[in-house]
Amino acid sequence: MGAPLAGRLPERSFAGVLFDMDGTLIDSMSAVERSWLRWSEEFGIDPVALAGSHGRTSANTIAVVMAGRSEGERLRAHSRIAEIEVADTEGVVVLPGALEALESLTRRGVRHAIVTSCERDLAAARLAASGLPRPEVLVTASDVGHGKPGPEPYVRGAALLGLSPGDCLVVEDATAGLVSGRAAGAGGLLAVLGTTPVEVLAADADVVFGSVADVDWPRLTHPTP
């Protein structure tokens, strides 16, 4: 176990854990960068405009960077990035401690879910490529009307676990996800390094760790009958 890099551990334990996926449990950054670079070249978008989009849905990103384009072109762009990303899973791997964290929670009967900004097909492709087991509860961008940074993904994740958001710990690596968790009323916000600097994460998270491998899961969680 490692010490927090910023913030303090909540003075309580949680009945459920809601994990982000990319950058938290799996490393897909190389595939993400290749896919969006290819997409930006095809649609004439300056890749610099994509900065800060990590953690948001592809639909949200496209709405921002193609705000001046027609609805039809935005729809074609959305379909195309989905196609490119599902086809490119090279280098997608499980991050250190992710398997162990999920196994520990499962073994102890702690409810947990993955809540991702990926659409359903992309989430399935990256889970398969990484070898990370698909959890019983998986919330994707395809399952909600409005994704992160809005509250709906984490509200839905908690509900599918049979819990209120206040009973859950949200685990994230991006500002958009932390904002989503806070808006959902999550009981705690834990961030891990990967895609966002610690000082940026610390502005929104209760506590920041280097990775999920550094977290004392038995200390922070408890099973619910």
From TrEMBL:
SUPFAM superfamilies: HAD-like. It holds the Pfam family Hydrolase. InterPro entries: HAD-like_sf (IPR036412), HAD-like_SPP (IPR051806), HAD-SF_hydro_IA (IPR006439), HAD_sf (IPR023214), PGP-like_dom2 (IPR023198). GO terms for molecular function: sugar-phosphatase activity. PANTHER family: FRUCTOSE-1-PHOSPHATE PHOSPHATASE (PTHR43481), GLYCEROL-1-PHOSPHATE PHOSPHOHYDROLASE 1-RELATED (PTHR43481:SF4). This is Phosphatase.
